[in-house]
Structures are given as structure tokens and as C-alpha cells.
């Protein structure tokens, strides 16, 4: 337990000081000790809560089969969204808050009811969702040079950094979640595109995985939570001065600027 607390302190300090650290996976007996990695994530989350951050949702990572293969796993992971991570649509983000940042387009789902059934189905997930929003997730890593395996990213809050939600509330009935088309622009140049299929075949499959996982862990998803579903296309490197804009199908644009 002392080793887990030590690693949590190292990652938390790295985030505060904005100084990346070497991979932490070598501290485990096995590089795939995911259970220990989630314990580290939880300890860091508690530190943030102690500093006044509010828990507002979850983010799902590793929803791309290619990325899963790269990290040697066969399922996604999750991280925690806090109030400090959210920035306004059309807003500005201070580059001093970022560490090795990248951006990706996702769907965000806002829940209207809890998902705490013993048998959670895709239909129950749909019924629990109040509305969707187009979102940009800014990921970052406290690990040097993004040299990560599964335990590194899980412990590091699934490489979470910040996120932007669109202003438009969209009913699920108005979205073709499997075939919707995404485009992400950096400084006016198209730098990433994809579709709903890129996220586990359908972003709702990712939410279903998360709902089952959290229920199994005794921490079911709750009404009001924001759920970031996972990327609809490749992530892109971003830096100070960049203006990022994304759009899915004909829905309203989501954008922000790094200053």
C-alpha cells in the first residue's frame, strides 16, 4: 500500500508542477496490475477533492481496438471528470495548465437517471441518457514522452486533462451514433476525421461497458453525470496558439483556443 501511495504522490506532484515523470509501471510486479493502477487513480482523485474539485462524471478511454492492441489490453479504461477539467465552449485554455496535450472529438452523454440495475442493457443505457452534446476532450500525460502502457494511463486518470462541451443539447433520436461523421480542425486545417464506428462500433457500447463496470465496482453511474464516450477519430497534438474546432454531422460547432 505504501508503494501505491508513493506513486499517487509522484503523479499528483507531477501534475501540480507540470513536470513529467518516468513510467510508473515498473513499480508493479506485473505491468498489467490494473487493480493497483485504479487504486492510485482513486487516491489522486481524493487529493483533488480535498482541494475543492467536484466530481462531475467519467471519461472512457481506449475505445479504439488499435490503441487497445498497442497497450496490450482487450477492454477500455475509465477516468474521473472533475469541475476543474471543464472549460467553456468558445473559451480559452491557458497553456500553462497543460502537459503534452492532444485533442480528440467525442460524444458526451448526460444522464437523467441512475444506472444501477443488476442487468444493464443497451436499452437501459439509452433510457438513462437525458441528451447528448458534441465534445472535445483534451488529453494529457504526466508520463514522459507519452511512454505509457495500461497501468501508466489508468493510474494517470486515463490520461485525462480537460474537456469542452457543446452548447447544443441533442436528443439521441436525432443522432446516427454509428454512422455520424466527425471533423476536427486545427487553425482552420482539417487534422482528424472519423465516425461513430471508431468508438467500439457505437459510442453507446462504450457507455454500456462503463455502466456495467461501475455497477460491478459498487459505484454505479448517477443521474447528472457527464460521460465522455471515447474518440471518434485520431487524436492530434495541440499547443499554445492553436484554435481547435470540431463538428459532427450538422450539429453546432464546438471550439476553444489555447493561450
What does this structure look like?
- This protein is α+β, with helices and mostly antiparallel strands and 259 residues long.
- The chain has one domain (2-258): Fumarylacetoacetase-like, C-terminal domain (Fumarylacetoacetate hydrolase, domain 2, Alpha-Beta Complex), CATH 3.90.850.10.
- It contains six helices and 13 strands.
- The chain has helices at 2-17, 34-50, 65-71, 122-128, 150-155, 203-216, and strands at 55-61, 77-82, 86-87, 91-93, 102-111, 129-139, 160-165, 181-186, 189-195, 226-231, 236-237, 243-248, 254-258.
- Strands 1, 2, 3, 5, 6, 7, 10 and 11 form an eight-stranded mixed β-sheet that branches. Strands 4-13-12-8-9 form a five-stranded mixed β-sheet, with no helix packed on it.
- Strand 12 (243-248) and strand 13 (254-258) form a beta hairpin.
- It is globular, with a radius of gyration of 17 Å.
- The termini are far apart.
- The mean pLDDT is 94.
